[in-house]
């Protein structure tokens, strides 16, 4: 039913009550189907989105499997996101932002800084999954610096340091203006006991252990 690597799509759809006709920005799309966080959103829930990916080899697969998306084959750090949104008439309140890049080469924090400088004044995202890969790299103090940016912009971290196969790698956020915070607060409270000790981040939660209500 869900297709994301850590069921990020399940998080998005549960928080947004299985919303139809949503909008997403997927930065670091990789394969259009396999462990892709927006595949179910587009194909089963009629969402529209922008897929940003550096590897041109995926473009034929995007055109075949993801015809309703806008495909941007470029370095995520230099994309003019504001122009993309304006040109394609995207709303200022969007539903999902994914950032899944390479922390070790700086692309993750540089792309987020680009968004902070050029997008976040105008555009908000109801849900965000941000890959900080703290288990593998901490280039530019990505994990902490990203949290400062999201907090400054009013986002609330629902699940910090979600782990995959024991490796803490992502933070999952919501914007309180765009989601049902009664549901979100209950979600946070009901999963507090699922966090376990971790030598890298002190606490972490396995994505498989997250329970939705």
Nutshell version of this structure?
The chain has helices at residues 8-15, 39-45, 59-65, 81-87, 107-118, 142-152, 181-190; strands at 23-27, 48-53, 70-73, 93-99, 124-131, 156-164, 167-174, 196-198, 202-206.
Task: Considering the chains and any ligands shown, give keywords for the structure.
Rossmann fold; 29% helix; 9-stranded mixed β-sheet; 213 residues; alpha/beta
Describe this entry's structure for a reader.
The structure is a single chain. With about 210 residues, this protein is an alpha/beta fold. Helix content is about 30%, strand content about 25%. Strands 3-2-1-4-5-7-6-9-8 form a 9-stranded mixed beta sheet, with helices on both faces. α3 links the parallel β2 and β3. The two termini are about 15 Å apart.
Mean pLDDT: 97
What is the alpha-carbon Rg in Å? 16 Å
Low-confidence stretches: none
CATH architecture: 3-Layer(aba) Sandwich
CATH topology: Rossmann fold
Q: Major sheet: order of its strands? A: 3-2-1-4-5-7-6-9-8
Shape: globular
CATH class: Alpha Beta
In CATH, the homologous superfamily goes by the name Vaccinia Virus protein VP39
Q: What fraction of the residues are assigned to beta strands by DSSP?
A: 25-35%
Classification by helices and strands: alpha/beta
Number of distinct beta strands: 9
How many helices? The count is: 7
Major sheet size, sense and barrel closure: 9 strands, mixed
String of helices and strands: HEHEHEHEHEHEEHEE
The structural domain count equals: 1
Determine the oligomeric state from the structure.
single chain
How far the N terminus sits from the C terminus, by CA atoms, comes to 17 Å
In percent, how helical is the residue content? Answer: 25-40%
């Amino acid at each position: 039913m869900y297709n994301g690597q850590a069921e990020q799509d399940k998080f998005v759809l549960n928080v947004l009550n299985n919303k139809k006709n949503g909008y997403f920005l997927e930065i670091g799309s990789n394969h259009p189907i396999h462990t892709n966080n927006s595949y179910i959103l587009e194909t089963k829930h009629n969402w529209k989105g922008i897929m940003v990916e550096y590897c041109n080899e995926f473009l034929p697969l995007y055109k075949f499997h993801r015809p309703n998306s806008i495909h941007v084959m470029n370095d995520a750090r230099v994309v003019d996101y504001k122009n993309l949104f304006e040109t394609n008439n995207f709303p200022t309140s969007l539903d999902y932002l994914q950032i899944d890049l390479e922390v070790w080469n700086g692309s993750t924090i540089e792309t987020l800084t680009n968004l902070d400088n050029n997008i976040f004044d105008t555009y908000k995202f109801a849900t965000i999954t941000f890959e900080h890969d703290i288990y593998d790299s901490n280039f530019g103090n990505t994990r902490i610096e990203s949290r400062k940016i999201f907090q400054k912009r009013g986002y609330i971290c629902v699940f910090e340091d979600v782990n995959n196969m024991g490796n803490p790698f992502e933070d999952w956020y919501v914007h309180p203006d765009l989601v049902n915070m009664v549901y979100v607060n209950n979600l946070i409270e009901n999963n507090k006991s699922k966090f376990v000790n971790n030598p890298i981040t002190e606490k972490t939660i396995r994505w498989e252990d997250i329970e939705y209500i």
